[in-house]
## 1
Amino acid sequence: MPIPPLYEGELTGTTRRFELTAQTGQAEILPGVITNTWGFNGSFLGPTLYMRRGETIEMTVRNNVTEPTVVHWHGLHLPAAADGGPALAFAPGESWSPTWTVDQAAATCWYHPHPHEVSALHAYRGLAGGIVIADDESDALDLPHAYGEDDIPVIITDAKFTEDNQLDETIDTTYGLLGTTPVINGITKPRFTATTRRIRLRLVNGATMRFHHLTLGVPFRVIATDQGLLDAPAEVDAILLSPGERAEILVELEPGKDLTLRSDGVPDNGGLEKGETANGFGLKDTFDLLTIVAPDESAPELGAVPGQLVSVEKPDATGATEREFRLNGFQINEQSMDMNRVDFVIDRPGIEVWRVTNENSDWPHNFHVHNARFMVDNADGSEMEFTAGWHDTVYVPPLSTLILLVDIGYYPDPMLAYMFHCHMLFHEDEGMMGQFVVAEPDQEVQLAGAHHH
Ligand SMILES: [Cu+2]
């Protein structure tokens, strides 16, 4: 299995500098077949960015592809000017240099494009990569930490191919750009040969539309969700990742017993009424994604997994501002994305309570909030969802309402917005997205155009 290079940037004191170039190239996704692709600092996908809590990040992104694009740091809490929303898209030949301070717990995040109406296409062509945020607390835990050896990124995307083995960019008007061939770290059906009896997989569902209900044929432990470590490892038989979601899992390996990471079909069609629609969204599809070759007998025995990880406490939402989001078709609250409309302004730090309802009976949606983390307080009708811990993206099953306790990063800027949207990227591109601004209480909110050079 290819392991994306770990890119630690250039560290000066506590400032870490990164340079990313979005570029065109060619990759061997299928064995022996050359396909035209896009990537960051390479031909397909991108390096894994490493950053630590407390550091200042100075990022430069160059656009060497053929269309305007922009990069969103999915899961990061940062100023709107660094968030990479559609208003910040920049042209081929130009660059963009956002900066921010890492002020969040250790987590597996990722980066991908967010240009208006073409996010799915740009991600599908290969503009996606992982982000590892580390901190002292997570480093001190006895968990696998050796990148590429026992701490392994698993970036799940997908493709469908034309007869001449190029990426088929045909977008279905109902189901979007649903790849039919899963791609793991850039290739199909990889094999990872383990040298240790326990590995940590950093699972990223980077597919534009596809859900993955992931199994290994044996129980495994979830140690982290989108926004970081859980309070304690949770043993499960499967985990559902909707597009954009991440999880970190620990897998115990016994010599001679190889395992297969499978996408096993979403139980109960994800709550969709009609089997036919569930087929269209690929919810019944099954795939072998990754073979994990067990270590040999010489691999040392390991101690127990820590019983406790980090402190995760449900926030107090007494007196919190409440907001409602009704997902229906390609709209949220009967409105489509308009880059000139601000749906609401958040003018203080603290917790908000967001009620998110999927009003469709036979369409799945999920919900992602930029610059935020949330807990799922009450998930009726969503038994298949793993709802412990902090998230930034969550599946919203048909005809269900989730109550999210949302913790927004407080970086007041009255001129630039953050997004909330369905992360099924075809839905987002069709307008299933809105904007909020974080400002100081007395600030006048007026959106400005992009600032870049
Ligand atoms: Cu949706």
## 2
Amino acid sequence: MKKFDVLILGGGASGLMCASWLNQNSSLHVGIIEGNEKVAQKLKISGGGKCNITNVDVRAEHFLGDRDFIKTVLEEFSKEDLLQYLQKRGLKPVIRKKRYYFCPKSSDEIIDILKKDTSKTELILGEKVLRISKDFKVTTDSSSYETTHLVIATGAQSYKSIGASSIGLDIAKTFKHKVKQFHPALVGLTLQPAQFWMKELSGISLHVKIKVAGKEIDEEMLFAHKGISGLAVLSASLYWHKGDIEIDFMPSLHVRDAIKNTKKHISSAFRLPKRFTKLFLDSLGVEDKACNKLSKKEIEKLMLIHSYSFAPSGNFGFSKAEVSRGGVLTSEIDSKNMQSKLVKNLYFIGEVVDVTGELGGYNFQWAFSSAVVCGKNLVKFSK
Ligand SMILES: Cc1cc2nc3c(=O)[nH]c(=O)nc-3n(C[C@H](O)[C@H](O)[C@H](O)COP(=O)(O)OP(=O)(O)OC[C@H]3O[C@@H](n4cnc5c(N)ncnc54)[C@H](O)[C@@H]3O)c2cc1C
């Protein structure tokens, strides 16, 4: 049976970064087992093919999970460290919308760097990990391996079509770790019948503010055939479990200012897509009429455009979710090295850990930071 010093399960963002760190800084015999025939399949399709690598504002507040744990990890390998790592290797990410760092041309740019940096790693491709024994024997669908250090980098459950699985949670449970089941996040939300009017707006997008669970998200929202989506809704979905969300459909113009001293019809005065305003008015039972003819009661109803509150019925599911919230509980992982507090030489990195970022590069930053924190610790075992 082939034996490794370090065996990393999962050849995605975190697994590759961990191996890269070990390749650059140690002589350890490192292997990666990846179920797909190729590594980095999520990186490849991420950010519309250009990979949103990180964000201008990387603070623990942008993540769901234990803030202190997240802060420790992000400080050890920060956004600046990540950008420096990439720049040293010839990649200068571009900033979009003043906050998101993307690959200038294609996600292949970052994948190529990670592949090059892991050239000394033994890649075991096209083998699915089935189970792990307590003494770190790893059984795949075609072989078995042994290792001294075992790194679980198998990600989470979203996008099964490109290899995602919840094996990480099964492995954690084998070692008596407590886990939170995965749930779809960064995903569109479905609607109750009272909001079905929104479905007729499929394809239209608006700049909105969404309030959910004490958070306020300021971004674009997209009406979709299945419900509501777009950057604002995807981010809101991270914090929404059930109950109401509140949307301000017109954050840059107050109703009172829009209707003041004008004979224009509401649908013109609102400066929103007319189709949206008309359906919104229908849902309120207000006629689209001249603003100077509106009654006090009608104006009061119009105010709802700034605080339209409703409970989504659910979400679009794992097949459409960019990430899964939940994972291995951080209370049983050491934030200084990502090592299990229950089992020596067992590590969890990336999305399998119960840390999930908002939309905007936070999840790759987490994957890379947690990977390097783990790698830095493993380097100590180099002979
Ligand atoms: C469509 C889409 C777009 C995204 N865009 C962005 C973005 O622009 N910015 C951002 O920050 N985040 C983005 N994300 C989220 C980001 O891709 C993940 O959070 C990140 O990849 C997590 O890294 P990871 O290493 O933990 O897991 P992954 O990158 O998912 O890697 C896990 C690997 O483990 C392998 N694996 C799983 N089970 C097994 C098994 N049983 N045996 C062997 N191998 C296995 C998988 O095939 C996979 O290659 C996006 C996600 C999706 C789905």
